Amino acid sequence: MRSASHPRNGTRGVILLEVMLAVAIFCLVGLALAKAISVAAGTLSLGNRQTSVRLALEGELSSALSQSLSTAVVIGLQATKTTDDGIAYEREWQPCPTVTSDKTLLDGLYLLTARARWTENGKDQVQEATIRVFHPKQ
């Protein structure tokens, strides 16, 4: 007579298959979770860099405005600096003549653009900030 405490050979194979399937599912879930965490960390890193670039662009605009108070505006594109992490900053002054409703020409109006360029994950990134500035002729 057979003992009830020993399962038959066919049952052992089924239990082993169930355990292997459970381990495989657990591994897939672990890999999916690791990938999700990696993507979230990359997105957070990119967001932090874009925030720091935005703050630096505001500083570039402020610097250009304060320099324009003491010197004449130089029309065109000028590179200003490149940081240690590879972000190149530049500023550009463009004349922006505007005619008012009574046909008066405002020729001291300029468009000031501060721009940052860098490469992230093999892709070129550009972020810019622009303001209009009235600068009377000197």
Task: Give a description of the structure.
- With 138 residues, this protein is an alpha+beta fold.
- The protein has one domain (9-134).
- It is built from one helix and six strands.
- The chain has one helix at residues 9-70, and strands at 76-82, 88-95, 98-99, 105-106, 109-120, 123-134.
- The strands form two sheets. A four-stranded antiparallel sheet has the order 1-2-5-6.
- A hairpin with a 5-residue loop joins strand 3 (98-99) and strand 4 (105-106).
List keywords for this structure.
138 residues, alpha+beta, two-stranded antiparallel sheet, 6 strands
What is the topological layout?
Blueprint: H1 9-70, E1 76-82, E2 88-95, E3 98-99, E4 105-106, E5 109-120, E6 123-134
Antiparallel strand pairs: 1-2, 2-5, 3-4, 5-6
